[in-house]
Amino acid sequence: MSSPLLGEFLRSRGVTRRDFLQFCTTTAALMGLSPALVPRVAAALAQARRPSVIWLPFQECTGCTESITRAHGSTLESLIFQGISLDYQHTLQAAAGDAAERARETAMQENWGRYLLIVDGSIPTGNKGFSSIAGRDNLSLLQEAARGAAAIVALGSCAAFGGIPGANPNPTGAVPVSAIVKDKPIINVSGCPPIPVVITGVLTQYLTFGKLPELDALGRPRSFYGQTIHDRCYRRPFYERGQFADSFDDEGARQGWCLYKLGCRGPTTHNACATVKWNDGTSFPIEAGHGCIGCSEPGFWDKGGFYQPLSTGQWGSARTLGVAVGVGTALGVASAALARKRQKDAEGA
User: Fold this and answer.
1) Are 59 and 125 in contact (CB under 8 A)?
2) Which CATH number is correct for 49-225, 3.30.450.20, 1.10.10.10, 3.30.420.40, 3.40.50.700?
3) pLDDT for the residue numbered 215
4) What's the confidence (pLDDT) of residue 75?
5) CA separation for the pair 208, 47 (Å, rounded)
């Protein structure tokens, strides 16, 4: 028996046509699609069959799962996760033990060549005993599941780039999905954890157009990772004026000045945190007063202290950034001096 159409399934769950169109409009905007394509997105989603999704957790902390499942009402996350058939996911499934493994095997057999494979966590290659599920090592599970997958989503920086398990000295020989699987399309949704709407946007793109979105050089969806956090940061004007906080409790910090000198890696980190934000669009780390740690970039854990300014030894573009900071500081000092002179002239007049 075939699964119901996605549109039918959502209607059965009380999702109105208006809510569905609003979801399609928002998703199209997040993916950088023209508003003219919204009807096509809606029509394609409504007629799509609920895809089978198999989610394999390897060397991970469950943070990616926690992030993705933080839905608020009829949001993108809740809508899209009602729209897929999540046939295997350790944290969310009711089954356990042999029943869970049989569910995974059945889903793979019935949807061979069509299911989406989500991988959460890095894969240990140093020793088969480092991490296992139901008595099987992570590497063999990935290789088996990848063979029948239509595409693979490497969810989180551990699956995309090796993440914290792959940090020096990397005792487990942790590697990303792309180091193991070479013959399937892979999309890296990096972040520690990733932003929830990024993965839902990827799934919607796949359901709508039958293909993965345009990717950057690191295999990440360009619509979400095409700009640095610095590009869209609300503190950017302070950076341009050379106004930087020197400590987390000085006057600059209280005034919301740029956190570059306190180690913020926003200028070299590609992600949508500054625009999409977290917790239903409430905030993001920089808005909460903490600099970006660059968690969506490869090797972020090994690139120096999180509270030290960027240096040429850590980041390739730091030399340019250093010049920019120097110029910005000089401009800020000059602007302040000019303002003081104008005030004195006005008082003298």
Assistant:
1) no
2) 3.40.50.700
3) 93
4) 54
5) 9
Q: What are the residue ranges spanned by the domains of the chain? A: 49-225, 229-344
Question: In terms of pLDDT, which residue wins out, 43 or 329?
Answer: 43
Q: Give CA–CA dist 262/243, Å, rounded.
A: 12
Beta bridge partners of 115: 149
Alpha helices in 111-259 (DSSP H): 138-147, 157-161, 196-209, 222-225, 229-232, 236-240, 251-254
Name the CATH architecture for the domain at 229-344.
Irregular (4.10)
Q: Tokens at residue 134, please?
A: 């139901």
DSSP 8-state symbol, 140: H
Tokens of 208: 């709508």
- 272/252 Cα distance (integer angstroms): 25
- The reply to whether 229-344 shares the fold of 49-225 is no
Does residue 325 surpass a pLDDT of 60? Answer: no
Query: Is residue 297 classed exposed, middle or buried when 0-12, 13-18 and 19+ CB atoms within 10 A define those classes?
Result: buried
User: Which tops the pLDDT comparison, 1 or 42?
Assistant: 42
Identify the CA nearest to 177 among candidates 139, 150, 136, 212.
Answer: 139
Band of the pLDDT at 78, cuts 50, 70, 90? low
The CA-CA-CA angle for residues 235, 236, 242, to 5°, reads 100
User: What is the spatial distance between Cα 5 and Cα 317, in angstroms, rounded to a whole number?
Assistant: 48
Judge contact between 123 and 32, C-beta under 8 A.
no
Any bridge partners for residue 88, and if so which? 54
- Determine the 3-state secondary structure of 328 from DSSP: helix
Is a pLDDT exceeding 60 seen at residue 313? no
Q: Measured between alpha carbons, how far is 152 from 168 in angstroms, rounded to an integer?
A: 26
* CB contact at 8 A, 90 and 60: no
pLDDT tens, position by position, 248-267 = 999 999 999 999 999 999 99
H or E segment and range at residue 8:
helix 6-12
Rounded Cα distance between 84 and 13, Å, is 13
Show the tokens assigned to 313.
């030894």
Per DSSP, the chain holds a count of helices (H) and strands (E) of 15, 9
Query: What's the pTM value of the predicted model, to 2 decimals?
Result: 0.80
